[in-house]
Amino acid sequence: MAVITGLKIGDVAKQTKVAVGALRYYEDQGLINSERGDNGYRYYSPNIVQQVRFIKKAQSLGLSLGDIREILTVHRRGDLPCDFVQHLLQEKIQQLEVKIQEMILFKTELEAYRDRWSSDQIHSQPEDICPLIEMVPLTQVSDRK
Predict the structure, then answer these.
(1) Bridge partner list, 7
(2) d(CA 10, CA 23)
(3) What's the CA gap between 9 and 12, in Å, rounded?
């Protein structure tokens, strides 16, 4: 019977302030690894705390768990993933630029409705829930989703 030493999942959770469920999910997603003891407990290597903190920092930059898995794969191959990270961040910046433009356009549309509605006379029908919203063309609403 081999004795496995390392940190239990609860210890990792306390040290990283990451919920046990999230740690299990990270493991299911291939971001971290553990070994099972004969007692069925998960045991993690001492460097797991650094790995989990890395994952949280990468998430704070807007990187998805899929992105982080790819970064870790490059690292596990023995390569430095910094060029790949730069590429991912450039993609994120471009995506944000598109979203910002979409949000500016949407804000402009909302302001136009607000201004028009403040001066319009409301003609309600008995079946209308809110005549203002009833005036919005459905194609504009569905295009935004």
Answers:
(1) 44
(2) 10
(3) 5
Residue 131's alpha-carbon distances to 41, 119, 122, 139, in angstroms, are: 60, 14, 7, 17
Q: What is the mean pLDDT of residues 16-20?
A: 96
List C-alpha distances in Å: 44 to 34, 36, 61, 73, 136.
Answer: 5, 9, 25, 18, 56
Residue 33 has pLDDT above 50, yes or no: yes
Cα separation, 49 vs 12, whole angstroms: 6
Q: Can you give the pLDDT at residue 1?
A: 46
Res 141 pLDDT > 60: no
The one-character DSSP state at 46 is T
Q: pTM value?
A: 0.75
CA distance 85 to 70: 10
